[in-house]
């Protein structure tokens, strides 16, 4: 309790202040402590294998307005709970220039459900309309600073660069889609499409910790 009180005082947030602002500041601290991208950074291109056997690069989306990069996995119950919502995001925004790119960085040695063969089976059974890429070396996840699945990075195409505009959760209710009150990813993309700034730029992702290879 004393630790949180100190953090609140340090951040200049009183107990009567808006709880969402406090949570966002805590999430911002955690993101800054990571070695990955921060909001406003330009993401480097990557090239990973898709479940259809093709190689997919971020540069393949140079004609898009941006991309919704989601680190996810087969085994994680949180990722499974969000699967239909990820599909819905792509169905809504791909035609408007913001397609989903799903990336699985999970070590298949830890969870057999995350083998490439299982990824192919999952993508086919659910009819993914977006790439489902395997980050076998885990270097892309490390570059982004991803720590959990699912974790979202919304990138806006700015000139020749893909600039990070949002990092965090898809929405505020992993357990119950009907109980969602904050559509973080949806709202961020909708704002970018209408030329407005993203209001909530960082949230703390809730999901399974990525198991890193030794």
From TrEMBL:
Keywords: Signal. This is Peroxiredoxin. Residues 37-194 form the Thioredoxin domain. CDD domains: PRX_like1. Residues 1-21 form the signal peptide. InterPro entries: AhpC/TSA, PRX-like1, Thioredoxin-like_sf, Thioredoxin_domain. Pfam families: AhpC-TSA. It comes from Dyadobacter psychrophilus. The lineage of its organism: Bacteria, Pseudomonadati, Bacteroidota, Cytophagia, Cytophagales. GO terms for molecular function: antioxidant activity; oxidoreductase activity. It comes from the Bacteria.
């Amino acid at each position: 309790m004393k630790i949180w009180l100190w953090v609140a005082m340090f951040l200049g947030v009183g107990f009567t202040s808006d709880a969402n602002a406090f949570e966002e500041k805590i999430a911002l601290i955690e993101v800054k402590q990571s070695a990955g991208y921060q909001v406003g950074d330009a993401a480097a291109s990557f090239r990973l294998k898709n479940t259809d056997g093709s190689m997919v690069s971020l540069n393949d989306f140079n004609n898009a307005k941006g991309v919704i990069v989601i680190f996810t996995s087969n085994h994680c119950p949180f990722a499974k709970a969000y699967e239909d919502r990820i599909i819905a995001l792509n169905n809504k925004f791909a035609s408007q220039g913001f397609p989903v790119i799903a990336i699985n960085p999970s070590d298949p040695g830890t969870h057999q459900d995350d083998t490439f063969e299982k990824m192919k089976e999952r993508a086919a059974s659910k009819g993914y309309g977006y790439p489902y890429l395997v980050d076998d070396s885990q270097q892309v996840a490390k570059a982004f600073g991803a720590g959990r699945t699912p974790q979202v990075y919304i990138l806006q195409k700015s000139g020749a660069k893909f600039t990070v505009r949002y990092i965090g959760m898809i929405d505020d209710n992993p357990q119950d889609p009907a109980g969602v009150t904050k559509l973080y990813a949806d709202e961020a993309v909708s704002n970018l499409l209408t030329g407005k700034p993203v209001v909530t730029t960082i949230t703390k992702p809730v999901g399974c910790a990525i198991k890193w290879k030794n």
